[in-house]
Amino acid sequence: MLYAVVDIETTGGFASGNAITEISVLVHDGQEIIKRFETLINPEMDIPPYIEALTGISNDMVKDAPRFKEVADELYQLLLDKVFVAHNVNFDFSFIKHHLSLSGYELNAQKLCTVRLSRKLLPGHGSYSLGKLCAALGIPVHNRHRAGGDAEATAILLGLLIKSDLDGVIAQTLNRKAKEQLLPPNLSRAQIDKLPRVPGVYYFKDQKGGIIYVGKAKDIQKRVYSHFTGSNIGKQRQEFLKNIHSVDFEICGTELMAFILEAAEIKRLWPENNRALKHHEQKYALYVFEDQNGYMRLGIDKYKKQMPVLHSFNTLLEGHNLLRSLIKEHILCEKLCYVQTKRTACTAHGEGKCSGACVGKESAASYNVRVKYAIEYLKGMLPTFAVLDKGRNEEEQSCLLVEQGKFYGMGYISYHTDIEGPEMLKSVLQPYPSDNYILNMISNYTTQFPQKKIVI
């Protein structure tokens, strides 16, 4: 078996927006280096000052160097039919594959990551960065952060790993069915293997244990693996993969519960790599308050987490339609409900349809009775029901509670539990924040599976 030990220097951290400035390829037969290839590359873009400070490669050094497409054929032939080896292999491979593709070559190769292999075969080191690991192992590194020097050190490390591999770890890694080479450098295969094949929520964590991403899944292990497939070479994904050091999970009885838990956890934790669900916030809400004259006033305003809400809406139109229906049904004053704001008296008063609270002709006590009835009527309009479904095991069933149109929470109860009312369920369920995103998911689910909805 032949290995191509590769190291590159680049203008930045992700392939789609950056170029290669230097390449070194050392062909290794498992015992020694049998062929060398090394060259500076004209990146056809400026090298940032901080990159020049790190590598020592300047714009002047590369101005007369060949462009990538001029060495693409030689490089492709050199890499063909060899195992692609690098320290954090997916970084180097993403650049080489991308720029070969731009030159008309499609590279498909088995990969070995010396970071991952070192963690398995040489455990116990405080750091697995190339410089610190080589220092700990006594491997000399000449010209650090230059392609040739780093490739030489990686080749020596590869030889040491091959000698240390008494249990066939390298062969197992190269087994395409094992998917080992897909994993990010800092995430162990053992953690992936422990993930269950059931619905739930998973948490990617960084080196310090901070949660950087929350996801939901019908099959946790399969979904986690899917993050590492594909050919996205953008900056965001490359940084994301590099920062994954561990994965944790919570099993859910159903996929619906996983959806809800994911939404709640994203709002609670606000992970840096979750974006889509951060925008599923309630935008408007119906409020009630008492003004300085003692009148209870209903009104639509922007949703405020710290204020008690009668009902929430995604759109202002949805809110005003509901409010107008309450005004009509309970003969409320449009001015006191902020539907009309510029008039002294509301239009309905002139038409004999308002008792005059807007101009002080109706007392606050009399008007407030109808407001209270309107609020009770609204609560009666909003449904209270439970959704019963599969649990995490055969001894339990999952339960979601919606009370007066708001999601209360979820959890697990015995199959033998008699549901007598919402208060009984609330004593055993975990409360969660309610919003229209969650309510819409529950509504869609009960429409699809009406037999699982129990009206209380």
UniProtKB/TrEMBL annotation:
Domain of life: Bacteria
EC nos: 2.7.7.7
Annotated keywords: Nucleotidyltransferase, Transferase
Record flagged with keyword Transferase: yes
Protein name: DNA polymerase-3 subunit epsilon
Major enzyme class: transferase
